[in-house]
């Protein structure tokens, strides 16, 4: 199973800290996991071209996402929304980019007031792009961090549950697709 862990911002450290924890949780599973931190790449702004027509970092990031079976997206909340850099990545991809992919979300925010951003802004985009979205997500507040570390034990348990549930959902959906395809004898 090919897993991409996407840290969806070019600034700040909390989302990257959370996604590093996700990578550690993935170590308990037999998967091929790649961490993409948008802060480490120079991504071109979408201009409507096919994602394979871009070069350099932009092509690497989009191709890696397209090759994934599972996508775990980490995003901060900026101005009560997702960062423009993350939205740009979605804009670079085709409309059905997440078809047959299982997608989960980890969101970091300064306060609990932004809890609904996942449901109101991110999930509609993921649904439009045909993702199979896990029902739950992990929301991490400012108070859960200290010195670039997650200090709330409950967050660690919830991240492990999210990783486990995401991989289980992906495997289950794959088996269902294979059963459905086996019904046809051509």
From TrEMBL:
<dbReference type="InterPro" id="IPR029039">
    <property type="entry name" value="Flavoprotein-like_sf"/>
</dbReference>
<keyword id="KW-0285">Flavoprotein</keyword>
<keyword id="KW-0560">Oxidoreductase</keyword>
<feature type="domain" description="NADPH-dependent FMN reductase-like">
    <location>
        <begin position="1"/>
        <end position="141"/>
    </location>
</feature>
<dbReference type="GO" id="GO:0052873">
    <property type="term" value="F:FMN reductase (NADPH) activity"/>
</dbReference>
<dbReference type="InterPro" id="IPR051814">
    <property type="entry name" value="NAD(P)H-dep_FMN_reductase"/>
</dbReference>
<dbReference type="Pfam" id="PF03358">
    <property type="entry name" value="FMN_red"/>
</dbReference>
<dbReference type="InterPro" id="IPR005025">
    <property type="entry name" value="FMN_Rdtase-like_dom"/>
</dbReference>
<protein>
    <submittedName>
        <fullName>FMN reductase</fullName>
        <ecNumber>1.5.1.38</ecNumber>
    </submittedName>
</protein>
<keyword id="KW-0288">FMN</keyword>
């Amino acid at each position: 199973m090919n897993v991409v862990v996407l840290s969806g911002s070019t600034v700040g450290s909390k989302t990257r800290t959370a996604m590093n924890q996700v990578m550690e949780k993935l170590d308990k599973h037999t998967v091929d996991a790649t961490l993409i931190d948008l802060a480490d790449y120079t991504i071109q702004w979408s201009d409507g071209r096919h994602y394979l027509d871009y070069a350099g970092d932009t092509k690497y990031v989009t191709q890696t996402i397209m090759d994934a079976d599972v996508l775990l997206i980490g995003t901060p909340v900026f101005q009560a929304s997702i960062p423009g850099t993350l939205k740009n990545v979605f804009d670079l991809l085709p409309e059905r980019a997440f078809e047959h992919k299982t997608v989960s979300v980890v969101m970091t925010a300064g306060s609990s007031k932004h809890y609904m951003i996942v449901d109101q802004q991110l999930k509609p985009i993921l649904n439009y792009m045909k993702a199979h979205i896990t029902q739950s997500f992990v929301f991490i507040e400012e108070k859960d961090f200290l010195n670039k570390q997650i200090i709330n034990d409950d967050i660690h348990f919830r991240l492990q549950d999210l990783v486990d549930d995401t991989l289980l959902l992906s495997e289950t959906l794959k088996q269902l697709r294979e059963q459905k395809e086996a019904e046809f004898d051509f």
